[in-house]
Structure formats: C-alpha cells, structure tokens
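Q: Please design a sequence for this.
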C-alpha cells in the first residue's frame, strides 16, 4: 500500500478531455454502454449524491433520481465546463478538491460514484477510505475501474507482446498515473474499506476499433448490454462497474452540516461573499464562479 500522505494528482487543469476524448474521439459506444450500466446500478431515488472526479459532467444528468448532486473534481476548468453544460441549478453543487482530502462532514452522502477516476489514483485504497467516511451507512457507492485482466491484455501477454501479467493481483501503472486493476484486488479493497459488493457489470466488451467502424453503434451497445449481465460471474472486459453498499455502524451527518475544513478537519466553515472561512483555524477557501475551491487556501 502507498503510504504517501499527499499522493500525486493527475492534473486535468486546462484539459480538453471532454471534447477531444469523448466528443471528437469516436467513443459514442463506450459512453452509451456506460449509460446502460449506470441505469442498471443506480437506485431509483436518492437524496444527495457525490460524483467524484466528475470532469465536465458527462454522467451527471444520469443521476436524475437524486435530489442534489455534488460534482467534485480537482480541476476547476473541468468544473467550469460542467457548469456551462448543466447550468446554475440549485440541484448541482460544484466543489474543487482532492479525492484524498474530501471537504465534507462524515456520513453526509447516501450516494457516490467514481467513474473513470480510480485509474488515475496512485493510492486507490486511501481514496476509498475517504469516500466511505463521507457516506451514510446503507448508501450506494458505484465504482468503475479499468480492468487489467481484459481479453486484449491476456492475448498480448500470451503472445509475449506485453511484459506484465494480467492475472497478477497488483495494479499495473502502464503510463505515469494511469493504472489498471485486477478485479479481485479491487473487490478486496472495497470490502476492507466498508463497502459490501452487491452487483458487478462488465462494460465495453467491444472496445475494438475495427468493430466500432464496421458495426452500427446501437448494435454494439445492445450486445454489450447483454454481455454486461455476466459481470457477477467473470470479468474480462476493459471496464468493470461495481455497485456496493456502505456497511458498518458509522455516523450520519447532523442536519445542516455539510462542509468541513480540509486544513483542521472541523465543520466550522461559514460562508461569506466569495469565500468560506473556518472559524476554528481561520483558513479561508475561495468561492469563485459558483465553485467552492478547497485545493489551496487564500493567503492570510
Ligand atoms: C478520465 S476523467 C473522468 C471524468 C468523468 N468521471 C467521466 O467519466 O467523464 C478523470 C477525472 O478525475 C479527476 N481527478 C483525477 N485525480 C483526482 C483527484 N485526486 N481528486 C479529484 N479529482 C481527480 C480529473 O480532474 C478528471 O476530471
């Protein structure tokens, strides 16, 4: 386990990820396959959902059963894009923060998602612990992770075109701050941090350039939708979605409590025009363009 108290962050500040990767990147199939998986896994109703690593809000409207959604991302420019897309609705709260230092009181959320983010985390277990802490017992947490034990990696390994073993339990960092995980390891991490696994779906089975060119996207999505249903039995797709439930006798947030100060950990923040100030340690955090920013405090 990585014991770095400040694990490195894969910084998306200024990134054109949403337009380049999704909109111009020919990934309609993957996007729609993920929508099918989320629809299957999300509860029909909920109160407050934390979308961790929300990016430009690609998935946010899929959480329609929840009354409010907190979009959290390390990148303020990703959140600005999300805000431009989703608008200034009271349903959405935008928070710039590090997944390893969540600025919320314990037991606040009854839902959380981490989609296409774990693969950037050098210390996935530390992030899962943070997430569990801010969740109410009984809450639903949906995790997506990049699966090292996928068919393409297995074929490449057997043909000796890839040095790393897709069956071994440790994460593989194939590019700096880009990891693939073994499903069994991910399940162990979830269970160790207080999440009971309820359902697994394997996703994006047909993420093959040639297939995507030759076959209609709708057909591939329908085939993927069927193949997803085998996810509890085996996991050989590049992406896996897991629905879990927060278990254990942990606290529930008091009514009205919401943010806590990432510096001192106290829930003593008061909102002033354009900043949040901690009454305990006097640290001030900027609020700009509708985004609560807990990355860097304001100078004293
Ligand atoms: C690949 S994008 C996925 C965005 C979105 N979940 C989606 O599926 O479209 C990864 C996102 O995770 C965010 N991220 C990475 N490391 C983070 C961290 N330590 N804390 C908060 N956000 C992080 C990045 O800023 C980026 O927006």
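A: Design:
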């Amino acid at each position: 386990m990585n014991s770095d108290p400040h694990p490195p962050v894969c910084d998306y500040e200024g990134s054109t990820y949403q337009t380049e990767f999704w909109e111009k990147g020919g990934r309609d199939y993957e996007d729609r396959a993920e929508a099918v998986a989320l629809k299957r896994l999300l509860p029909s109703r909920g109160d407050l959902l934390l979308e961790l690593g929300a990016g430009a809000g690609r998935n946010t409207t899929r959480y329609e059963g929840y009354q409010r959604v907190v979009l959290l991302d390390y990148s303020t420019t990703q959140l600005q894009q999300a805000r431009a897309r989703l608008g200034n609705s009271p349903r959405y709260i935008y928070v710039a923060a590090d997944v390893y230092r969540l600025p919320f009181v314990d037991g606040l959320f009854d839902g959380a998602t981490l989609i296409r983010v774990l693969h950037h985390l050098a210390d996935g277990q530390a992030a899962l612990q943070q997430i569990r802490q801010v969740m109410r017992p009984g809450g639903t947490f949906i995790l997506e992770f990049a699966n090292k034990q996928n068919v393409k990696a297995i074929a490449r390994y057997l043909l000796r075109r890839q040095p790393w073993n897709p069956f071994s339990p440790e994460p593989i960092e194939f590019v700096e701050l880009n990891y693939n995980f073994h499903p069994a390891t991910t399940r162990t991490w979830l269970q160790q941090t207080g999440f009971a696994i309820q359902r697994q779906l394997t996703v994006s089975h047909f993420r093959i350039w040639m297939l995507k060119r030759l076959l209609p996207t709708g057909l591939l999505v329908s085939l993927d939708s069927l193949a997803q249903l085998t996810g509890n039995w085996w996991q050989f797709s590049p992406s896996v979605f897991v629905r879990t439930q927060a278990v254990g006798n942990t606290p529930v947030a008091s009514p009205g409590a919401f943010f806590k100060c990432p510096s001192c950990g106290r829930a003593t923040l008061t909102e002033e025009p354009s900043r949040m100030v901690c009454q305990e340690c006097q640290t001030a955090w900027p609020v700009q363009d509708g985004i609560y920013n807990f990355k860097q405090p304001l100078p004293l």
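Q: Thanks. Anything notable?
A: The chain has one domain: 17-256. The longest helix spans residues 28-41.
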